[in-house]
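Customer escalation, tier 2.

The customer says the design service returned an amino acid string that "doesn't look like it belongs to this structure." They asked us to rerun it and document both sides in this ticket. The original structure tokens are below, unchanged.
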């Protein structure tokens, strides 16, 4: 999995495994913090949406296993052997939580809009009757 990373993603991942923050990585590489986060996010999504700390751990392990930095293990086996299924499940649950939270917020907004329209209708009816 990691052998397919771009050079820019490798630069970011090398600093990430040294426990640097996105801000520190951006300063070291002379790029924006947003660019750093986009590169990390792209790698996270390739790995099934694992959490950042697990991604760093897996990349650190990858770097130490292969002296030249290239992984000779097939792409089908490597990610499953380095990333616990529990972590992948937790990451997907978080995405589900975000979706559910968004849908609740949309429902609340629609309810407020309907109450506002009802109040306007009552106000107009009161004006007509008076």
């Amino acid at each position: 999995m990691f052998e397919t990373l771009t050079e820019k993603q490798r630069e970011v991942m090398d600093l990430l495994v040294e426990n640097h923050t996105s801000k520190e990585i951006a300063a070291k590489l002379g790029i924006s913090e947003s660019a750093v986060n986009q590169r990390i996010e792209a790698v996270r999504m390739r790995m099934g949406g694992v959490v950042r700390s697990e991604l760093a751990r897996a990349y650190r392990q990858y770097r130490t296993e292969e002296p030249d930095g290239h992984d000779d293990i097939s792409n089908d086996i490597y990610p499953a052997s380095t990333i616990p299924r529990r972590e992948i499940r937790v990451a997907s649950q978080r995405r589900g939580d975000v979706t559910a939270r968004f849908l609740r917020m949309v429902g609340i907004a629609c309810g407020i809009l309907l109450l506002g329209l009802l109040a306007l209708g009552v106000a107009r009816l009161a004006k007509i009757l008076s």
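Tier 2 assessment: The sequence is consistent with the input. Helices lie at 7-16, 22-29, 33-46, 52-65, 78-82, 85-129. The radius of gyration is 24 Å. Sent an explanation to the customer and offered a walkthrough call.
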